[in-house]
């Protein structure tokens, strides 16, 4: 992932060479694939889901090449010849997804025949819940052909058809793995967008997108330092100071105060959104803007927790934001009544949670069980999410 390569994610790596034993039933193996809004690449996990807690057998990532990333970005706004470009992109993505599946299988020593299904999120290029649609690209038929494994994908549209946002979907998996009988917890995913799940034993599970996760920080550093993809370790932000007036202008966006259910994406939190706010604050040092954007991610999450989950005593962070020590320290400072740690403390490394969630959603589909939480997405009821492309 040039130029600030993340050695923990790329190239593909193995966390746990598996030893197949009779108690690890082949029918419990699933592959989960997540390529998220940060557009950094595809994360994969091969997991045994036969017990209540998942066991990851192999995991890793393949980065998007610059040209592929540019094509994805070019499909975010309305443009010419979209059908052709989308179809070609979906094929390219399927080939990359198949490659990451083969790497996972090879490194774990598992054959395709032992895997029940691949859960493939695809790549979001449009998210318009207010118009009743969302678009995740992936040629799922080609992926089934290339892997020889049943593929489950297109997870969001059934929830939208039932009146929901189609997102976020991971709260159901968070509930399955991370809830505690006594402690009020929040799980906060900080990818391109941020989303949280409230897991309070005394209250229903809720979840929603909090706003930008790393997306604006990524966009700003790329704008100021051509070639940079993200602010590794938050080092650049750490060299700047938060600008309270800019932070207040950013937090004034109505998205933050809107009640859940809600979800968002690049359509709202873009470089254009940032430049519109910077126009009222000319001459700021670029590093100060970066520090303010980091604080925006922190403040929007902290405000959401104060408003919707005030009893929270433990915050568990996943996604790339968990790898940013400044972001983690500022979250802890903003939430003095909470222990703040990465989901690694609960047994699932921060960078595996989302891909694992799509393996879990594939399992829910194969069992014909609902994958959504209506209280999260706003759907009129629980629905079996996804569509099957048989091997
Ligand atoms: N070492 C690091 N230091 C700082 N930030 C990092 C580091 N590694 C990753 N990130 C941030 O995490 C982002 C990727 O996170 P992740 O893979 O969780 O996002 P995603 O899954 O694409 O997005 P989403 O969850 O919104 O769909 C990068 O774009 C970068 O901003
Ligand atoms: C439309 C879309 O792809 N949304 C993503 C995005 O990235 C984070 C946040 O916004 C969340 O709503 C969702 O992803 C996760 C995996 C989810 O559905 O829970």
Verbal overview:
The protein is an alpha/beta fold and 391 residues long. It folds into two domains: 26-166 and 352-389, ATPase, nucleotide binding domain (Nucleotidyltransferase, domain 5); 171-350, ATPase, nucleotide binding domain (Nucleotidyltransferase, domain 5). Helix content is 36%, strand content 20%. It contains 14 helices and twelve strands. It has helices at 66-74, 82-108, 140-147, 157-161, 171-178, 215-224, 235-238, 244-251, 254-257, 271-278, 286-308, 325-334, 353-366, 374-377, and strands spanning 29-35, 41-48, 55-63, 115-128, 133-137, 151-153, 185-190, 193-199, 206-212, 314-318, 339-342, 387-389. Strands 1, 2, 3, 4, 5, 6 and 12 form a seven-stranded mixed beta sheet that branches. A hairpin with a 4-residue loop joins β4 and β5 (133-137). α2 (82-108) packs parallel to α3. It is globular and about 60 Å long. The site of adenosine-5'-triphosphate has 24 residues, from loops.
């Amino acid at each position: 992932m040039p130029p600030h390569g993340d050695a923990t994610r790329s190239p593909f790596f193995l966390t746990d060479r598996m030893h197949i034993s009779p108690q690890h039933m082949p029918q419990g193996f699933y592959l989960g694939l997540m390529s998220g809004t940060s557009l950094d690449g595809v994360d994969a996990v091969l997991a045994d889901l036969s017990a209540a807690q998942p066991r990851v057998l192999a995991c890793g990532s393949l980065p998007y090449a610059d040209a592929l990333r540019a094509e994805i970005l070019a499909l975010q706004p309305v443009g010419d010849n979209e059908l052709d470009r989308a179809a070609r992109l979906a094929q390219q993505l399927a080939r990359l997804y198949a490659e990451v599946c083969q790497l996972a299988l090879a490194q774990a020593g598992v054959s395709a025949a032992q895997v029940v299904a691949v859960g493939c999120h695809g790549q979001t290029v449009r998210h318009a819940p207010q118009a009743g649609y969302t678009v995740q690209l992936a040629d799922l038929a080609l992926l089934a052909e290339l892997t020889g494994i049943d593929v489950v994908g297109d997870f969001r549209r059934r929830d939208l058809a039932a009146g929901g946002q189609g997102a976020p979907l991971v709260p159901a998996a968070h509930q399955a793995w991370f809830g505690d009988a006594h402690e009020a917890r929040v799980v906060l995913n900080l990818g391109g967008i941020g989303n949280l799940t409230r897991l309070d034993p005394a209250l229903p599970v809720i979840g929603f997108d909090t706003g930008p996760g790393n997306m604006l920080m990524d966009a700003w550093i790329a704008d100021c330092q051509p070639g940079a993809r993200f602010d590794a370790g938050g080092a650049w932000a750490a060299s700047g100071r938060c600008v309270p007036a800019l932070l207040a202008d950013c937090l004034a966006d109505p998205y933050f105060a809107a009640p859940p259910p809600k979800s968002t994406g690049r359509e709202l939190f873009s470089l254009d959104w940032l430049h519109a706010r910077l126009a009222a604050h000319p001459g700021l040092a670029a590093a100060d803007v970066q520090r303010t954007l980091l604080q925006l991610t922190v403040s929007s999450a902290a405000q959401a927790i104060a408003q919707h989950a005030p009893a929270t005593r433990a915050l568990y962070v996943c996604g790339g934001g968990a790898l940013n020590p400044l972001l983690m320290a500022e979250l802890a400072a903003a939430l003095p009544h909470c222990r703040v740690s990465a989901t690694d403390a609960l047994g699932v490394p921060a960078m595996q949670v989302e891909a694992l969630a799509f393996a879990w959603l594939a399992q829910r589909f194969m069992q014909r069980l609902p994958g959504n939480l209506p209280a999260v997405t706003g759907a009129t009821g629980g629905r079996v999410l996804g569509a099957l492309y048989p091997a």
